[in-house]
Amino acid sequence: MVTIKDIASELGVAASTVSKGLNGGSDISEQLRTAILEKAVEMGYESKRSKKTETRTLAVFIENMEYEKPDQFGYNIVLGFRQAAFKGSWDIDLVPITPEFQKDHPLPLYMVEKHYSAACMLGMALEDPWMGQMDTVQYPTVLLDNFIPVNPMVGSVGTDSSEAMEMAVSHLIELGHEKIAFLDGSAHSYISDQRMKGYLASMKKHHLPIDPNLAIYAYFVEDAAHHHVPGMLDLGATAIICGNDLLAIGAAKCCRSLGFRVPEDVSIIGYDDIPLAAKFDPPLTTIHQDLIGLGRACFYTLHAMLDDVNLNRSMLRPKLVVRRSTAPAVPRLVTKRVESHDSVLYVNPALYTQVAD
Amino acid sequence: MVTIKDIASELGVAASTVSKGLNGGSDISEQLRTAILEKAVEMGYESKRSKKTETRTLAVFIENMEYEKPDQFGYNIVLGFRQAAFKGSWDIDLVPITPEFQKDHPLPLYMVEKHYSAACMLGMALEDPWMGQMDTVQYPTVLLDNFIPVNPMVGSVGTDSSEAMEMAVSHLIELGHEKIAFLDGSAHSYISDQRMKGYLASMKKHHLPIDPNLAIYAYFVEDAAHHHVPGMLDLGATAIICGNDLLAIGAAKCCRSLGFRVPEDVSIIGYDDIPLAAKFDPPLTTIHQDLIGLGRACFYTLHAMLDDVNLNRSMLRPKLVVRRSTAPAVPRLVTKRVESHDSVLYVNPALYTQVAD
């Protein structure tokens, strides 16, 4: 059990200062109070400050998203939400849900039963039972990386895909690339769709031709790259933007297995900036998503919606983190197919012939 | 000078209750406290509750936007901002600015000089001197109806144009219209551009052909309609969506002067839902913008940005208000030109010939 003393020692301040921060004392700076509240949440401090008779509890429903350990995708999203909610004096209930749970508990009833004021939905899939109830939801509800039209009670939070894809495409153009492929996640995901739209708009903006065989929906898993990267290389792609970092890692491995060097022969860009992205060899250039910021944005969006502001979209600014998986484009000789015993392989002749530039 | 007693009598509660609401007393409901704070701001109550030593002041810079009287466009935006800021215990300075003022006072210096923590910009034009400084702004800054790429310190608030245009276009399609024109505001405005993109995307989504002569940038004033509406009617448009309500009023008047009835011959949709829209004959079907909500969203976006959440876009959900300026499409006979003494007029033969349907 985390105590005020633990928080104080972690921050290097007196326990009385932490106590003031937690209890709204007036003679400490806003900045310090913020640091105390954030650290308290991060360390799992159990608040006892809720003395109100009124219910002020928000639900965070979570599915298909690992969040229990610091290196898991959902961890910082949940942390950011908790921190912002704690500063705003809201209690939260974190409720892992399955499709079966959703079938057994209609959302409107569950909200009433638990006295929740509003809900945040993390990791939901479009085919989830509760998503089918979004058109008629009566409580402020925020969806991460999903969007529901029309209903003013449902808002959406995410990283701005169009700005992200524009950052990735222009970075590659600055490096001299023109044959830029996009290997996206699942065709049935809202967020894949947004990223594909962003890619197409950005290519068009820069007057680069769009080849349907270089703009492909796959899946958000490493293995999916192997089905599509050979074809992209065959068509002369010198750069591949990927829908997430796992796909990018798969793409890089696939390039190598076919004799292409990354980034010398092919530049690769990921998306998300998961911890693995910086550790991969070469470290991945990727679109950074601010996970703590996403969690906080979910809270602030709900907070505004509770004050009758019908936000339908709150988008965070992406950041392109340039590492070593992107490099200037070099002229590529035509690749040739080599039949192997179990699959079709592609060999880059540039490895064998000196390229004159 | 507004007193606590004034607020109490306006709300029909005791002065002691208002006092509790204003001073954070714990034995009143959150709902009542909210109502008290909102009413106090609406009535212009001068807060004396700020006893903090730290500066917590936000700047609201305003240009090209009338806001002093309740029926002016900016009034409710400013009111919404003030209400949300007051509930969040922030002071605000409302600062009307001109281009000359901006030239004389570089934004970064002005922010430091006045000890502002963050700024909200209302009514700025792209060519304003301060807009040129947005790329390097270091304080959280929010722009209404404008967008600046890349800089994480600058966020954008507005009504979602793509959803708005989709609502307008699908409403007309449900009424049987296919030749749907869009008469937009200035080509050099970010918001016109967003609305045009929304119109084009929505037409495409519904597989309606796009005629460049039916998708026209004009200006956000009533008179601009007269230059473009005749040509649109000549091309067979049975419905005209307009970039704002003034243009819609101009379009309706123009249709009538040419012998077309609204909505029997031509349906018209406006944008904004200014007070005039409901009073016009026929009352305008229009896209409602929640002005109080926009003002509040500006505050909440800044509030999140002050907590290190780099929001680049916070979009409000639009609402289509269906009044009497839209009606089912009727087959239109070909119009013919009639030369008049001072301009080219168009006469709708439907007024003279019985249309068989």
Question: What features would you describe in this structure?
Answer:
Chain A has 357 residues and is α/β, with parallel strands linked by helices. The first copy, chain A, has helices at 4-11, 15-23, 30-42, 73-87, 99-104, 107-113, 161-174, 190-205, 225-234, 245-257, 275-279, 291-306, and strands at 57-62, 91-96, 118-122, 141-144, 154-159, 180-184, 215-217, 239-242, 267-272, 285-288, 311-316, 319-321, 336-339, 344-347. Chain A has a six-stranded parallel β-sheet with strand order 2-1-3-4-5-11, with helices on one face. In chain A, helix 4 crosses helix 12 (291-306). The longest helix of chain A is centred in the middle third of the chain and has 16 residues, at 190-205. Chain A starts with a helix and ends in a 10-residue tail after the last strand. Chain A binds chain B through residues 26, 29-30, 34, 52, 54, 56, 84, 87, 149-150, 152, 160, 163, 166-167, 290, 292-293, 296-297, 300-301, 303-304, 307-317, 319, and chain B through 26, 29-30, 34, 52, 54, 56, 84, 87, 149-150, 152, 160, 163, 166-167, 290, 293, 296-297, 300-301, 303-304, 307-317, 319. Strand 11 (311-316) of chain A pairs antiparallel with strand 11 of chain B, so a sheet runs across the interface.
